[in-house]
Amino acid sequence: MLAESAIISASMPKVLLDWFYVAVFAVVGTLMAVLPLAVVWVLAPRQESPQKNITYESGVLPFGQAWAQFNVRYYLFALIFVVFDVEVIYLYPWAVVFRQLGPVAFVEMLAFLSILLIGLVYAWRKGALEWV
Amino acid sequence: MSWVLELLKAIGLTVVIFTFLAVVTAMIGVYLERKIAGWIQARLGPKHVGPQGLLQTVADTVKLLQKEHITPRRADVLMFNAAPVVVAVAALLDWVVIPFGTLGSRVLIVRDINIGVLYFSAMASITVLGIITAGWSSNNKYALLGGLRSASQLISYELPLALGILWAAMVAGTLSTVGIVEAQIQQGGWFLFTLPPPVGRLGAPFGILAAVTFLVAATAEVNRVPFDLPEAESELVAGYFVEYTGMRFALFQLGEYGEMFGMAALATIMFLGGWAEPHLAPYLWVAVALGTFVVAAVILLTARHSLIIRPILILALLTAAVSLLMSVGIHLPSIVWFLLKLFTLVFFLMWVRWTYPRLRLDQLLNLSWKVLLPLGLLNLLATALVLTLGGR
Amino acid sequence: MGELGVFIILALVTLIPAVVVVTSHNIVRAALSLVPSFLGVTGLYILLQAEFLAGIQVLIYVGAITVLLLFVIMLTEGGTGVRLRQVNEQVPLGAMAAVWLAFVIIVILTRTVWPIGAGSPPPYNAVAIGNAFMTDYVLIFEATSLVLLVSLIGAIVTARGEE
Q: Model ipTM?
């Protein structure tokens, strides 16, 4: 576990090397996660029976289709989340340069966030944040 | 062919970190959880398998390895199998940016990615997809509902999580995890209690508020009590992973515990100074050790028969041991400090789990959108104002 | 040479799931195939050393937009795995239009003289982007917040239109 920031591999700049590690992590990690499943495939009994495969509904036989009634509140939460997630994206670069830039950066971000706080208040007042 | 060397190094590190996750977070974490739960509930927890029940999780793993894999009828097989793997791998990927300490001049971290904490936040948001897939592919309307409700909870709490991270990134001036710890070392204090000079200790309320925001959001992100309504074990029979048997269930748990430890590790890095050891004069360390002895004596004399004193006494013993070593001048390696802080935070999270009742889903979402989000934003602005007025 | 190989792999990871998205009969599978496609684009951003954009891509596209799509799909009839009809009478016309469009794009791509930017992206992307936002591009930055506000209000009004 060594930080390679001082030792840049001759063929790759640091950025690519970092994310190369991430890619290897993802692939090898998936393999290692699948490994216990493979062990189970070898070790575990496999006795199919129709009763075992029935979907679980607290002991009674399943009733009706397996989909849920649409309710707009799920969609509204996801939508408001997307907008605020994009706002958070804008906060990241500001946060890292803020201390170097002085009061101007603060005022700019204040303007940005106030406009979005208006949006949050609007959503709140219109009941878009209610679950029930 | 230097990339072959890098490839081998990367594979080796993956195996090490995955083993760390499987052994430390899943096995030891589950054992700790059950023991602490027992003590808080005035019972003993696992004690039969191995000395003090230490091999309990090993036995559980062996049991789960030979349980039958049942796939519900008309479930989408590819997605049903992929969902637990996605959740486990997302938790594993979190650990790429966690620094464990220093060895000489080198930092013990897999890769110090420049956008470290942003990357962590992104990996945490991949878990949501795994949960939705699990809920839908079970072909079970209750699993689907549980999955969607859990997804709503997770996305609602990603915002306060990001705001907590942003606070630390702003004060440190960098997105890199190593950079955040080094900023705390440079200013000589943890972000929890101090802001950079000239604000100093006056910045404690901002740090504490940011840490609380982050920890509450982190608890909700890993579906732990008091935010585990979508997977409530006693009420909804595990919600979105109700149809998962055996090792697939274990993979979900591995993902959940790995992510919980990952969030605690990030909180340690951002607010508790990571691997840095606290700077106290030797006489203060002696005072801490003596104070701990006094507290332990008082507890032993007054509450000897209560089981809850066991974890408290263990913590007191640890504190006393560490303080004595520090007062003599023996410096513990940085990785020990990191693990100490990590496990203290994890103990705190587990304590919260077995103390508070579950929040209802609408209370949970109100807490996130109407309390934590405005508080997080205002805290960010207030800290920015204070730092600007203080002259950066 | 290695870079070309990686690029080809990433291009395949981006394009093959994209084909699945467009042609699959199962709408949930189509939506979930977007995820490897987005991850392929993430890889392409990393090849260009635009790290910050790669992080944002995963955070927003995989973490938010796919979730939004899945919510909508799973809460409507499509959640039962309704089979979509993928062909209709207009296939020949559509195929001709697609081929012609591809031809035009290839001609444009090969005939344009692409200016090569000097150097590579700054190593600390977030710092550079932050500096740019706060100094050169402030107006655009503030306008973006207005765009976000308008989209938020519009979405709420549209979704709750029945009230």
A: 0.87
